[in-house]
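Trying the structure run again after the queue cleared.
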Amino acid sequence: MRTAFIGLGVMGYPMAGYLAKAGHDVVVYNRTEFKAVKWTAEFGGRSAVTPGAAAENAEVVFCCVGNDDDVREVILDKDGILSGLSAGAIIVDHTTASAGIAREIHTAAAGKSIGFLDAPVSGGQAGAENGQLAVMVGGDQDIFARAAPVIDCYAKAITLIGPAGSGQLAKMVNQICIAGLVQGLSEGLSFAERAGLDPAVVVESISNGAAQSWQMENRWQTMIDGEFNFGFAVDWMRKDLGIALDEAEINGAKLEVAALVDRFYAEIQAMGGNRWDTSSLIARLKK
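Done. Tokens:
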């Protein structure tokens, strides 16, 4: 298919690469041009000077940018994606953003007979690089059915959650769960060390029971070793938790643990760990 990909960060760069490797025609745009130049040198295709120019003639346009303001800019501005699309095309937004912006874009796109899916992902940089992302989608069933085979290029699971905004709400659930899990794992590993136990032996034992998790299997050793210069950054997690906490103010959900962990991540930022992996929560327990 004729596609475009807007935003070549640590997630978007390999995701767009999987589209190209699957044989789709891909035009890319990135705010920092050298990333687009590098991508085309590696994967072929071509780059454009604006999101709208990238979207011209595309059947499906993907974007993965930073926050609500970025989404609004790359889609709705005069040189944005909507300016270059024809009726019948589809926009798939992989940004983790608010449900509100998803509904706003859905309405604007529908006014031009263009489909829109909010489709945040889980799996982090490793999931993007390995084409193993879980994709949570909000939008219309017919649009989802058309876009899903293309999204499948870099996904291990694609789920239509509900109408516009539902994908973003599901991603909030994902981040709420991860926040509590990583804090629990941090406290458990810290406790094991202070109790004089061998963390490797403990993890080998409990990872075969109910305490097992992806975080435990993939992060326990680096957490013990104090290695955090990789993975999903604390700054990004605080952004995501902020979105969830704002939504909870609207729907009345009590996010007591998530709010507490958000404050703990603020402590990690104060330690200079803005770009550390989210597993760095254990660092504040080693002080």
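The chain has a mean pLDDT of 97. Worth checking whether this holds up in the mutant runs.
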